Amino acid sequence: MLIMDLPPLRGSLAVGRYFNDSLNTYGKAPSFVGWWYAFGGNGYVWLGGFAFMLLILLLWRWLLRSRLQMLPVLQSILLFWIFMLVTEGTLDAQGLFIAALLGTVLICETLLRRAESRTKRIISATMLRYRSEISV
């Protein structure tokens, strides 16, 4: 069985809509566990939960090893995103959020690094100027 053959993912039907249509719970979204259950049953609840925790652990360790200047900001956004995923459970609608987050991190990190290098150049030029004035 292919993953795309599962009823929640056939056609344009999303897991949340499948959850509403099959359980007659209109206006409600499945939780994290409910999303995995609607996706494939009990086995996927365990598998999805384990894979999600492993992914978060690997992502967190990668972030700690990275040399990002906006690391604390990114960690807080990641914690908020994890909280939203676990409570809201709309795992199939995260593509736009992830793309926006990556784009924002890329732009902000680039601006921070440019500002840092410019500041270092200004400080070194100022130090050289004052040294020459003191030695004269």
Mean pLDDT: 77
Helix proportion of residues, in percent?
over 70%
Shape: elongated
Please identify the oligomeric state: single chain
Rg measurement, Å? 24 Å
Q: Pairing-aware structural class of the strands and helices?
A: mainly alpha
The low-confidence parts are: none
Residue share in β-strands: under 5%
N- and C-termini, Cα separation: 82 Å
- Total strands: the figure is 0
Largest sheet: none
| Succession of helices and strands | HHHHH
DSSP helical segment count: 5
Per-chain topology:
Layout: H1 15-23, H2 32-40, H3 42-65, H4 71-88, H5 95-135
Helix pairs in contact: 1-2, 2-3
Account of the protein in words:
With 136 residues, the protein is an all-alpha fold. It is built from five helices and no strands. The protein has helices spanning 15-23, 32-40, 42-65, 71-88, 95-135. The longest helix is centred in the last third of the chain and has 41 residues, at 95-135. The mean pLDDT is 77.
What tags apply to this protein structure?
single chain; mainly alpha; 5 helices
Write a brief structural summary.
The protein is mainly alpha-helical. The chain contains five helices and no strands.
